[in-house]
Structure prediction request, 646 residues.
Amino acid sequence: MKLAGISTALLTLGCISGGVAIPTALDLTSAEISPRAFSNAPDGYTPANVSCPANRPTIRSASSLSTNETAWIDVRRQQTVSAMKDFFGHINMSSFDAVSYINNHASNITNIPNIGIAVSGGGYRALTNGAGAIKAFDSRTEHSTQTGHLGGLLQSATYLSGLSGGGWLLGSIYINNFSTISNLQTYKEGEVWQFQNSITKGPKTNGLQAWDTAQYYYDLAKVVAGKKDAGFNISFTDYWGRALSYQLINATDGGPSYTWSSIALTQDFKDGKMPMPLLVADGRNPGETLIGSNSTVYEFNPWEFGSFDPSIYGFAPLEYLGSHFSNGEIPSSRSCVRGFDNAGFVMGTSSSLFNQFILKLNTTDIPSTLKKILANILEELGDRNDDIAIYSPNPFYGYRNATVEYAQTPDLNVVDGGEDKQNLPLHPLIQPTRNVDVIFAVDSSASTSNNWPNGSPLVATYERSLNSSGIANGTAFPSIPDKNTFINLGLNTHPTFFGCNSSNITTGHAPLVVYLPNYPYTTYSNKSTFQLKYDISERDDMITNGYNVVTMANSTRDSSSSDWPTCAACAILSRSFDRTNTQVPAVCSQCFEKYCWDGTRNSTTPAAYEPAILMASAKSAGLKNMAVPGVFSLLVPFVVLGVWFG
Ligand SMILES: *[C@@H]1O[C@H](CO)[C@@H](O)[C@H](O)[C@H]1NC(C)=O
Ligand SMILES: *[C@@H]1O[C@H](CO)[C@@H](O)[C@H](O)[C@H]1NC(C)=O
Ligand SMILES: *[C@@H]1O[C@H](CO)[C@@H](O)[C@H](O)[C@H]1NC(C)=O
Ligand SMILES: *[C@@H]1O[C@H](CO)[C@@H](O)[C@H](O)[C@H]1NC(C)=O
Ligand SMILES: *[C@@H]1O[C@H](CO)[C@@H](O)[C@H](O)[C@H]1NC(C)=O
Ligand SMILES: *[C@@H]1O[C@H](CO)[C@@H](O)[C@H](O)[C@H]1NC(C)=O
Ligand SMILES: *[C@@H]1O[C@H](CO)[C@@H](O)[C@H](O)[C@H]1NC(C)=O
Ligand SMILES: *[C@@H]1O[C@H](CO)[C@@H](O)[C@H](O)[C@H]1NC(C)=O
Ligand SMILES: *[C@@H]1O[C@H](CO)[C@@H](O)[C@H](O)[C@H]1NC(C)=O
Ligand SMILES: *[C@@H]1O[C@H](CO)[C@@H](O)[C@H](O)[C@H]1NC(C)=O
Ligand SMILES: *[C@@H]1O[C@H](CO)[C@@H](O)[C@H](O)[C@H]1NC(C)=O
Ligand SMILES: CC(=O)N[C@H]1CO[C@H](CO)[C@@H](O)[C@@H]1O
Prediction:
């Protein structure tokens, strides 16, 4: 491969740029030990041979949850009991005593609500809007447990899933030791969430931006070259993931030694003090460019990487990704490999669609020398492969003697989790073995032409669930109307519940879905997916808007929204009421009447959807229809690929 040559070109660039000496070596192993560090890779970004543990790692069947997850769930569910009592304790449920209800049923944990939260993709728009949602759900956020707010929902949840931009949010929270959003917002120059410095230019240190940028690209190239030199196939996602890390991981150089599997090793996680993070990505068959609704959906949980779909139906131990699995085992002649599951690489995988964007950055102001080099990298990697992450060696090679193509190729190609149109990471949460009762689905998708949601990811997941003899493989999902109905009935303008009546779902056990669509409460939050730069005030306005989206402006949206926390609580309790044969309290019946989709449809093509900002007092000066220069031309490649990225 000529990539080494490209790296050399970058090194050369570093030397000529500015005429200042550039550091010649990167010490990859010296990542500082700090309270936030989980940098346990053996050799920085480069995966390394290690001796295998006594029980050699294997691929296991997806027919059950891992023993790790099962054991952890017992711990976590107990933690959520007290969190739910706090949560319900803040909410007026009229004559129904939800705290006593939880107390009365806590001895049989299966009867207690099992909550999931899902944060969609959509670049920095999804990251910031999703951050506002998480901030609102987090009891640690100041004022979040006051009347009208929803603080404590995060502490009550068992699972938190993300993909693409939502996956950046997830990664930034978990890799930084389950940081609060407020904390991530208060970091200073040189640290995380400095989105005013575009990811294409890198962090600002003390020098000239052009110099910092050259140094940044030099560092990206150098670190990725290390992985390649150790014999691993690389893809553009390696560079992309490294770049993301600088913005999301609070450690020197974006923490090249931080692994995703280290989340499972942190004490607070082991003690069940936080929900389980689940990151979603899609599979792509060799030679394919279209990601269909039947493409394999993968998840990264803290212990494993794999899929419940019939195509793979297996899980690999995340810590040992990069080892040469064959037929589900590592041959005795081979050593084990660790350090492949770099946290940035995992986040980059889930958002690999941005590769193409980065490579077509001709409208932005990065130095043209760098653009040329990026273009060269693209050429080297091959046009068709610019949006994939290469998982090589393929952990599922030969596994189950599967006839699917995945099992027969030495490389596994993994792509952006939103490319199959399921831009909400619902797949891990609708697995029957996880028994989730309710999903709070925060949708920041750009489904309309002006970047608003219209239910499209729910439609995609619903349609997939109908293929019961094939890809659905035991999953069920509430009935979801078409996208026109979403707009005509305004289902995308406020929280809407789907699947309220579980007996109307005939395909299996499905959770109730609380759909929380992005909407302009206090700022026009429909920024382009490809806006890569947010000033701090813009970032914070987006986060506040996200807070307002999920709390209905702290229940002040209009005169009738003061019931919102009560109704969210009813959604949480709904499936539990079924199991315990509890009569639905009158206050909840009213809520369901009001917030549940009633099954009606209006599929007429609607007029252009252009919601106006809700709260007149808002200081926002955002543009109603976002159009950043060059966005149209940037969209062309996606349209050509038939990909509509939410
Ligand atoms: C997962 O479970 C296996 C088998 O019980 C155990 O050996 C391993 O240490 C667990 N992993 C973690 C990260 O706890
Ligand atoms: C709780 O809500 C009911 C209406 O559902 C209302 O009558 C009552 O005053 C509220 N209680 C408190 C303490 O706000
Ligand atoms: C990481 O966060 C801590 C605060 O918890 C801060 O003091 C430190 O400077 C940050 N480190 C880096 C490398 O940004
Ligand atoms: C997925 O669907 C496409 C067309 O919709 C079809 O060509 C392909 O064979 C399907 N793949 C699988 C694994 O079912
Ligand atoms: C790791 O071990 C394999 C043999 O199992 C060898 O081919 C490879 O070169 C080793 N990699 C490194 C980086 O030492
Ligand atoms: C983008 O810029 C590079 C370098 O300036 C050039 O080689 C490439 O052809 C340009 N691509 C497009 C689509 O204009
Ligand atoms: C896979 O095929 C080989 C040879 O046909 C056979 O020995 C082995 O048992 C099969 N493995 C599984 C898991 O079916
Ligand atoms: C809702 O509460 C949050 C957090 O206190 C605050 O930032 C936001 O401005 C409030 N929303 C409205 C509409 O007042
Ligand atoms: C717990 O409740 C479920 C029904 O929700 C029931 O099937 C199960 O038997 C109960 N377990 C115990 C130990 O009572
Ligand atoms: C109930 O299920 C049917 C059949 O799937 C569907 O047409 C209808 O819209 C559903 N009703 C609700 C309220 O979800
Ligand atoms: C259906 O939606 C169209 C387009 O928004 C609207 O003009 C029409 O009035 C709606 N029909 C009904 C019965 O509400
Ligand atoms: C419920 C169900 O259909 N499960 C199937 C999922 O896919 C695997 C692998 O093909 C089957 O073994 C399961 O029976």
In short: The pocket of 2-acetamido-2-deoxy-beta-D-glucopyranose (ligand 1) is lined by residues 67-68, 264-265, 303 (CB under 6 Å).
